[in-house]
Specification:
This protein is α/β, with parallel strands linked by helices. The protein has 2 domains: 181 residues, 3-Layer(bba) Sandwich (FAD/NAD(P)-binding domain); 106 residues, FAD/NAD(P)-binding domain, CATH 3.50.50. The strands form 4 sheets. Strands 1, 2, 3, 4, 5, 6 and 17 form a 7-stranded mixed beta sheet that branches. The chain has a 5-stranded parallel beta sheet with strand order 8-15-9-10-11. The longest helix is centred in the N-terminal third of the chain and has 28 residues. It is elongated, with a radius of gyration of 27 Å. Bound molecules: flavin-adenine dinucleotide. Flavin-adenine dinucleotide binds next to helix 3, strand 2, helix 6 and helix 10. InterPro entries: FAD/NAD-bd_sf (IPR036188), FAD/NAD-binding_dom (IPR023753), Ferredoxin-NADP_redctase_2 (IPR050097). Keywords: Flavoprotein, Membrane, Oxidoreductase, Transmembrane, Transmembrane helix. This is FAD-dependent oxidoreductase. Pfam families: Pyr_redox_2.
């Protein structure tokens, strides 16, 4: 018995040896062109992915986790500028309440990159286009990459108003969402920077957290008489004077300086600012946008272009870490299902 095993081992070793010698001698005699073909093939493998995810924050990482667990070869390309980077603490995401935004993202990245088919590059996608049955991506660092599917998890870029101090306080004491930061400034002296219908809706909402509320319309109010009466009846003061400056200490609001010289002390200011997409990638791919400017998707996060998915802030006004994680996970699963359907 022992002898048989030994013999088999010897035969296998000899076979292996012959195979190895053949490969080596072939390699030595390979013409240059064949060598460069092989080299190009391995380059291609490095540049080809089942899915490229543009944006590697909560939505992108979440999509990557679903795809990594489905054994897909995935590349996440991330420019490292998540929208909440200035916020000291993130709230209202279960298990991570009060944790710093980058701590949540770092832990997510660590967990996602445990899947050996998932890769991460710090870079920025500049162009994306359909090329035959694939997508071709070019990046800021001059990389040309290919994928069968694309997931856009690019977030959005908030456009700061031209008020000194505003951008320094953004996410610290100038806040966009009561569910994210309202509890921390409950019952405090709070302002709302808005006008018209938005101002009315925001005032109604924010009064849930504090009744020490001033609405700054930053110019003539365009609220209806009924709206103004209702706000005043609920103890909400309306200030029409233009804002000169937000006075703060390291992002912590102290007062609002008005153009007529008055300083009104405040602890927090709610503001909803306009947004833009970080780049033209969705448009280059021909994805339709909604009336509000988000990338149009169905419930499975498919955009209007086949093979292209979108998730996170770029495709919903329900802006939160929880929502980005949910839509990212959905995009990953839907994308994987599409690949399975096409190849089965
Ligand atoms: C100030 C502020 C505070 C917030 N606080 C909270 C909170 O407390 N709780 C909560 O639940 N939510 C909060 N939010 C909302 C939450 O941060 C977002 O909903 C969430 O970050 C969206 O995740 P995302 O992955 O879609 O986008 P983002 O987190 O914005 O990430 C998008 C990523 O894509 C990258 N990217 C964009 N274009 C490209 C490209 N062409 N190539 C490569 N990479 C690209 C960006 O650099 C970025 O890293 C806050 C938002 C703001 C603005």
């Amino acid at each position: 018995m022992c002898n048989i095993i030994k013999k088999t081992l010897v035969v296998l070793t000899r076979r292996k040896f012959m195979k190895l010698s053949l490969v080596t001698s072939l390699a030595v005699s390979l013409p240059d062109t064949l060598f460069s073909l092989l080299k190009n093939k391995s380059m291609e493998d490095k540049q080809y992915f089942d899915v490229i995810i543009v944006g590697g924050s909560y939505a992108g990482l979440s999509a990557a986790m679903a795809l990594g667990r489905a054994l897909k070869k995935v590349l996440i390309i991330d420019a490292g500028k998540p929208c909440n980077r200035q916020t000291p603490h993130s709230h209202n995401f279960i298990t991570q309440d009060g944790v710093a935004p980058n701590e949540i993202a770092n832990l997510a990245k660590q967990q996602v990159l445990k899947y050996e088919t998932v890769h991460f590059r710090e870079d920025s996608v500049v162009t994306a286009r359909r090329k035959a049955d694939k997508f071709e991506i070019t990046t800021h660092q001059q990389q040309v990459l290919f994928a069968d599917k694309i997931i856009l998890a690019t977030g959005i870029k908030d456009i700061m108003p031209d008020i000194p101090g505003f951008s320094e306080c953004w996410g610290i004491s100038v806040i966009h969402c009561p569910y994210c930061h309202g509890y921390e400034v409950r019952h405090r002296k709070t302002g709302i920077l808005a006008n018209g219908e938005t101002a009315f809706e925001m005032s109604k909402m924010i009064r849930n957290w504090t009744d020490d509320l001033i609405l700054f319309t930053n110019g003539r109010s365009i609220l209806t008489v009924e709206q103004q009466t209702k706000l005043i009846d609920h103890g909400i003061q309306i200030v029409e004077d233009e804002i000169e400056e937000i006075v703060h200490k390291e992002g912590k609001l102290q007062s609002l300086a008005l153009k007529d010289g008055i300083h009104l002390p405040l602890d927090a200011l709610y503001a909803r600012v306009p947004f833009a997409h970080h780049n033209e990638v969705a448009q280059q791919l021909g994805c339709e946008l909604t009336e509000q400017g988000y990338i149009k998707t169905d419930l499975m996060q498919k955009t209007t272009q086949s093979g292209v998915f979108a998730c996170g802030d770029n495709s919903t006004m329900m802006r939160s870490v929880a929502s980005a994680v949910y839509t990212g996970s959905m995009a990953g699963a839907a994308c994987n299902r599409e690949i399975i359907e096409e190849n089965f």
